[in-house]
Amino acid sequence: YPTWKRTLARQAREAQVKRFCRAQAIQRRLEEIEVTFRELEQQGIKLEKLLRDEHGSPADQQTRWTNQLLYLVQKKNSLMNEESDLMIAVQELKLEEQQSQLDQKLRSYMNRGETLKTPEEYKAEQEILKQLVEVVNKRNVLIHIQEEKRLSEL
């Protein structure tokens, strides 16, 4: 088993572990966002009730409650934006994993001698190459979506 094959296998495992750690971190953050959403929702409900029920309260108090409510809406929109970014990152991780697996399969077919390949193996190699190009194109679309989103935020 040549050294370069061991090196490639080790690098693939290391990349897989990194993707797994990123996926866990994203999942934790998504759960935190969900909890924060619920908290903001509860705070918003309380403020809305105060605004609706307290018609006799001073105008400055109602203004403060309205400002707090607007702040909660801004915070919620910010969290929704972050959640959207994280969902794109999840899709990107899935595509990275798929690309890695296809890359390994393709490499195994390409390492066989050209004269030793059967017609079925040629077809399989071409199919894997086609799938790999599709995955790369999907990743490219995600990158464009992220870039458009970043530019629109500026």
UniProtKB/TrEMBL annotation:
It comes from the Eukaryota. InterPro entries: bMERB_dom, F-actin_Monoox_Mical. The keyword Membrane applies. Pfam families: bMERB_dom. Transmembrane segments: none annotated. Residues 23-50, 79-108 form a coiled coil. Keywords: Coiled coil, Membrane, Monooxygenase, Oxidoreductase. GO terms for molecular function: monooxygenase activity. It is found in: Membrane. Residues 13-154 form the BMERB domain. This is MICA1 monooxygenase. The gene is Mical1.
